[in-house]
Write a structure and sequence with these properties.
It comes from Streptomyces haneummycinicus. This is Decarboxylating 6-phosphogluconate dehydrogenase. GO terms for molecular function: NADP binding; phosphogluconate dehydrogenase (decarboxylating) activity. Belongs to the HIBADH-related family. Belongs to the 6-phosphogluconate dehydrogenase family. By secondary structure, the protein is α/β, with parallel strands linked by helices. It has two domains: about 1-155, 3-Layer(aba) Sandwich (Rossmann fold), CATH 3.40.50; about 165-285, N-(1-d-carboxylethyl)-l-norvaline Dehydrogenase, domain 2, CATH 1.10.1040. It has 13 helices and seven strands. The protein has a seven-stranded mixed beta sheet with strand order 2-1-3-4-5-6-7, sandwiched between helices. It is elongated.
Length: about 290
C-alpha cells in the first residue's frame, strides 16, 4: 500500500521504517530536509495515487491544525487523513467536520510504543468510520505488534485519541507507584540493594510489567539515579484525562494524584520524579535533565 507520512521525528521516522520493512511505499515529509523524502507537502500529495492516504505525526495543537488545513486544500474527494499524534479528542471532531465538508475522510489513531515501536510494534487505538478504517487496515497490520492484540477500532472519530488519553493517564499512575516504592526502599537503612529488589520483582509477582523492566534498565544505567534531576514534564494527556473525569463525574484519585506529583517536581528536586523521568526516557526517549543542571 502507498501512504504519505508527515512528521519524521522519533516516532514518525521509525514508523516509516517499519512500514517500509513490511513492503509498503512510504513518502515522508518533514521540515528537516535531511530526513524528508520531498521538499514540500504539496510534493508528497502529488506523488500519491488516489485514494490518497496521509498520516500526520506532528505535535498536537497548532502544528496539527496547520497540517490539516494544508491537506484540506491539497487532497481531493475520497482521500483520507490520519492523525496519529497525541491530539485531544475534541480536536479530532473539529478536524473531521472540516475535512468532511471537502469530501475527505478522517481517522484518529492513538499510537503507543515510543522508541521501541520499530522493533516491537505499536499499539493502535483508532477512531473513525468503518470504511476509512478498513482502507487503512494493511497499514495498521504492519504497524501493530505481531499476534492478535495491539489494535482496536475503538469507535467513532475521537474514540482513538480518547482511549490513548486514558491509557496515558493509567501510565502516569503506574509510574508514580513504582517511583514511590523506589523512594521508600532507598530511604530505609535495612535495604541496601534496591536495584536488585526491583529486579527480583520481574518474575513471579503481580506487579511485573514492561514499565518495571524499564525501571530496572534505568537503575542498571544509574543505580541510585544520581545523575538525574527530579523533574518530570507532563505532555498533556494526564491533564485531559483528569478534565474528562471531572466532566463525567468519574473518580480518578490515583491518576489525579500522579499528575499533581509531576507538578510538585517543578518545585523541588523530587526523588520520586527521578524514577518517573528515567522511565519516560526509557520507553519514549523523552528528554531528562541532569542533576548538575539542577
Amino acid at each position: 500500500m502507498q501512504i504519505g507520512l508527515v512528521g519524521l521525528g522519533k516516532m514518525g521516522g521509525n514508523m516509516r521504517e517499519r512500514l517500509r520493512n513490511a513492503g509498503h511505499t512510504v513518502i515522508g515529509y518533514d521540515t528537516n530536509r535531511e530526513v524528508s523524502d520531498v521538499d514540500h507537502l504539496s510534493d508528497l500529495v502529488d506523488r500519491l495515487d488516489g485514494p490518497r492516504v496521509v498520516w500526520v505525526m506532528v505535535p498536537a495543537g497548532a502544528a496539527t491544525q496547520l497540517v490539516v488545513d494544508q491537506l484540506g486544500t491539497l487532497l481531493r474527494h475520497g482521500d483520507v487523513v490520519v492523525d496519529g499524534g497525541n491530539s485531544r479528542w475534541t480536536d479530532d471532531e473539529k478536524h473531521a467536520k472540516e475535512l468532511h465538508a471537502r469530501g475527505i475522510g478522517f481517522v484518529d489513531a492513538g499510537v503507543s510504543g515510543g522508541v521501541w515501536g520499530l522493533k516491537n510494534g505499536y499499539a493502535l487505538m483508532v477512531g473513525g468510520d468503518e470504511e476509512h478504517v478498513e482502507l487503512l487496515k494493511p497499514i495498521f497490520d504492519a504497524l501493530k505488534p505481531d499476534g492478535p492484540y495491539g489494535f482496536v477500532h475503538a469507535g467513532r472519530v475521537g474514540a482513538g485519541h480518547f482511549a490513548k488519553m486514558v491509557h496515558n493517564g493509567i501510565e502516569y499512575a503506574m509510574m508514580q507507584a513504582y517511583a514511590e516504592g523506589w523512594e521508600l526502599l532507598e530511604r530505609v537503612d535495612s535495604v541496601d540493594n534496591v536495584r536488585e529488589v526491583f529486579r527480583s520483582w520481574q518474575e513471579g509477582t503481580v506487579i511485573r510489567s514492561w514499565l518495571l523492566d524499564l525501571a530496572v534498565n534505568a537503575l542498571d544505567d544509574d543505580e541510585h539515579l544520581e545523575r538525574l534531576r527530579g523533574f518530570a514534564e507532563d505532555s498533556g494527556e494526564g491533564r485531559w484525562t483528569v478534565e474528562a473525569a471531572v466532566e463525567n463525574a468519574v473518580p480518578l484519585p490515583a491518576i489525579t494524584a500522579s499528575l499533581f506529583a509531576r507538578f510538585a517536581s517543578r518545585q523541588e528536586d523530587s526523588p520520586q520524579m527521578k524514577m518517573v523521568a528515567a522511565l519516560r526516557n526509557q520507553f519514549g526517549g523523552h528528554a531528562v535533565e541532569s542533576a548538575e543542571k539542577a
